Automatic annotation (TrEMBL):
Its EC number is 3.4.16.4. Gene3D superfamilies: DD-peptidase/beta-lactamase superfamily (3.40.710.10), Penicillin-binding protein 2a (Domain 2) (3.90.1310.10), Penicillin-binding protein 2a, domain 3 (3.30.1390.30). This is Peptidoglycan D,D-transpeptidase MrdA. InterPro entries: Beta-lactam/transpept, Beta-lactam/transpept-like, PBP_dimer, PBP_dimer_sf, PCN-bd_Tpept, Penicillin-binding_protein_2. It catalyses: Preferential cleavage: (Ac)2-L-Lys-D-Ala-|-D-Ala. Also transpeptidation of peptidyl-alanyl moieties that are N-acyl substituents of D-alanine. Zn(2+) binds at D354, D367, H373, C386. It comes from Ramlibacter tataouinensis. It is a single-pass membrane protein. Pathway: Cell wall biogenesis; peptidoglycan biosynthesis. Residues 61-238 form the Penicillin-binding protein dimerisation domain. Its cofactor is Zn(2+). It is an enzyme of class 3 (hydrolase). Catalyzes cross-linking of the peptidoglycan cell wall.
């Protein structure tokens, strides 16, 4: 018997299922409507901003780096634009090595370029855009444009590069710029937010000299561009922009022609020369020889050049004027004499009998003149540089009294000059020795160690900057001025002066005017009838000075110094300090020519030519300059020339002053952080050392 279906029951179940399904559909539509309402109404502003951000990008605009000028407006650091081939490793579609190999078939990429690129990769993040070739020619740019589609992640960019038009000239003081390394990036994280924002997009900062110390003024203010981008992140068009403000122009106090003259007179010799205006503290010349070409660092120094500079025995990267420390030799004697007057240990008329040596503790401290100088008062002790006089004086004063008096001149102290990296030097005392050594027997100060301090030997070690500053104090009647290298900072757009160097007096007058007058009279005597008289013969002005010759190694008891039998780097240093004109000093200098011998023969002649140029506008003859470089001329020879008629640089007319330069594009370029040797060559001498003159 067939069972009949219950149609009503089936319809009822069907209707229930349809209702349940409809309910689910309605709920889903309600959820979608609710979500749509939420997104379109409540999240509209937020999502609209996100969409706009996906469509647009904010790109920092790195400002033009400011110019560096000398005191007369000569441009010492400027900028130029060039094309660079850059790789962003994270965006490459092929292995990096293969990409570089293929690129080499399109654009000339040398092995040194590859090595430099790999060094950059080690110092930065893989997604950064890194240059592998700089300064592309128009032909190379066109060639890559035809093949660029093959190399996603590789671009040609227009970059601005720093340029130092005079190459090696004054490179230690001007400095150079370099790519920001990881250590510097980490340090930037601690900067205030506004300062961090100003450096977004900045890849290069100052690494040395004025470029480093005046980074904030030279950098400028970063601008921004709002650009529309494609789905691939490439800029399509510019929507809006806020222009960057170019960096300020830094005007140095350096006279670059004086700087060049002194560097030329040094030739291939090593040493340092600092010239200061004693009344203002402005540094007129800041020479360190040998020097280096900062342009080597512009697009990243290659390994060969870096090795040559960094491993050279002559240490061309060492700023000897700022960081090199040396025994001052007999240039120390005028300051010792002034200390003796101030403390009452000597009077100007008080004389000693000099037999040519001084016995102390069974040790014979020799004078430079065999048989001695006879009867010696203070004037004669300076003019003829009598060592015995100062052996006795040092013994009478003692190390701590000497320290307390000589520190007033800035010996063993930082001058506070406006570039980084200055060495403190060493002015010894019993307190210093107790702190410097660990063993009790080393901490003890022995009386014999005091004797040679009087002639600028022993533990004494100072920079030429310190000695020049101390000489400026004598020239400025006992008033100490803080040395500085920058004269003013100028806005490149409005040409308004933003900052001006403050001629800052440091402390009180350090000595009585009548005592300073006694020392200055003796220093004039040195250049008229003493050790440097030949160098200043016929000078149209009167000057004061003091020669010095400082030992590098100890000479054994009973042995005589013979330069021809010594290694060149063990020979004596030639020093000189001076100021001119004597009655109203406008320039004070301190200098050293390493391992050159007598200061009177090798240093004073350079100072004479520098004074002639700065005070009278006279340039030495080519014959004279060649002789001075070899230490073969004291009094000027040949026909001097008006400085204005001397082509400079060679074959070119003198640079025209640029008192109000227009804004110039800035662009850094050194991809490697090159560190400068921080320690000067050691200069040691025992208590028996002798300072010759």
């Amino acid at each position: 018997m067939t069972e009949l279906r219950n149609v009503e029951a089936d319809l009822s179940r069907f209707r229930l299922r349809v209702f349940a399904a409809s309910l689910v559909v309605v709920v889903c539509f309600l959820l979608l409507a609710t979500r749509l309402l939420y997104l379109q109404v409540y999240r509209h502003a937020d999502l609209s901003e996100q969409a706009e951000n996906n469509r647009t990008a904010v790109v920092p605009v790195v400002p033009n780096r400011g110019l560096i000028l000398d005191r007369n407006g000569v441009i010492l650091a400027t900028n130029y634009s060039a094309y660079t081939l850059e790789i962003m490793p994270a965006r490459l579609s092929m292995p990096l090595d293969k990409a570089i190999e293929e690129l080499s078939k399109v654009i000339d990429i040398q092995p040194r370029d590859k090595r430099r690129f790999k060094k950059l990769m080690e110092e930065t993040k893989s997604f950064d855009s890194l240059p592998i070739r700089s300064r592309l020619t128009d032909e190379e740019v066109a060639r890559f444009a035809a093949h660029g589609w093959r190399f996603p992640g590789v671009e040609i960019k227009a970059r601005l590069f720093r340029n130092y038009p005079f190459g090696e000239l004054a490179s230690h003081v001007i400095g150079y710029i370099g790519r920001v390394n990881q250590t510097e990036k980490k340090a930037m994280e601690d900067w205030p937010e506004d300062q961090q924002a100003n450096y977004r997009g900045t890849e290069y900062i100052g690494k040395l000299g004025i470029e480093q110390s005046y980074e904030e003024q030279l950098h400028g203010v970063t601008g921004v561009e709002h650009v529309e981008t494609s789905a691939g992140g490439r800029a399509i068009r510019k929507l809006a922009s806020h222009a960057a403000t170019p960096g300020n122009t830094v005007v140095m106090s350096i006279d670059i022609r004086l700087q060049k003259l002194v560097e030329d007179l040094y030739g291939d010799r090593r040493g340092a020369f600092v010239a200061i205006d004693p009344k203002t503290g402005e540094v007129l010349a800041f020479v360190s020889k040998p020097t280096f070409d900062p342009n080597l660092f512009v697009d990243g120094i290659d390994q060969e050049n870096w090795t040559a500079l960094n491993e050279s025995i002559d240490k061309p990267l060492l700023n000897r004027a700022l960081r090199g420390t040396y025994p001052p030799g007999s240039t120390y004697k005028p300051f010792m004499a002034l200390a003796a007057l101030e403390t009452g240990k000597r009077t100007p008329q008080q004389s000693i009998s000099d037999p040519g040596y001084f016995w102390f503790g069974g040790h014979k401290f020799r004078d430079d003149k065999e048989g001695g100088h006879g009867s010696v008062d203070m004037y004669k002790s300076i003019v003829h540089s009598c060592d015995t006089y100062y052996y006795l004086l040092a013994n009478d004063m003692g190390v701590d009294l000497m320290h307390d008096e000589l520190v007033k001149f800035g010996f063993g102290e930082l001058t506070g000059i406006d570039i980084q990296g200055e060495s403190r030097g060493l002015l010894p005392s019993t307190h210093w020795k107790r702190k410097a050594y660990r063993k009790p027997e080393q901490q003890k100060w022995y009386a014999g160690e005091t004797i040679s301090l009087g002639i600028g030997q022993g533990y004494n070690n100072f920079t030429m900057l310190q000695l020049a500053s101390a000489t400026g104090i004598l020239a400025n009647d006992g008033v100490k001025m803080k040395p500085h290298l920058v004269q003013k900072v100028v806005d490149p757009v409005t040409h308004q002066q933003l900052e001006s160097a403050v001629h800052q007096t440091v402390g009180e007058r350090i000595a009585k005017p009548e005592n300073i007058a006694i020392i200055r009279n003796a220093l004039v005597g040195v250049n008229l009838e003493g050790t440097s008289a030949r160098a200043f013969q016929g000078a149209p002005y009167t000057s004061g000075g003091k020669t010095g010759t400082a030992q590098v190694v100890t000479i054994a008891q009973g042995a005589k110094y013979n330069a021809s039998q010594m290694d060149e780097r063990h020979r004596d240093h030639a020093l000189y300090m001076a100021y001119a004109p004597a009655d109203n000093p406008k320039i004070a200098i301190a200098m050293i020519v390493e391992n050159a011998g007598f200061g009177a023969q090798n240093s004073a002649p350079i100072a004479r030519r520098a004074f002639d140029y700065y005070l009278t506008g006279v340039y030495p003859s080519e014959e004279d300059m060649a002789a001075v470089r070899k230490g073969q001329a004291t009094t000027p020879i040949g026909k001097a020339r008006p400085a204005a008629e001397v082509p400079w640089p060679a074959g070119m007319a003198p640079p025209a002053p640029a008192a109000a330069p227009a804004p110039v594009a800035s662009a850094p370029a050194l991809p490697a952080s090159a560190t400068v040797p921080a320690v000067a060559p050691a200069r040691a001498a025992s208590a028996a050392n002798l300072a010759r003159h």
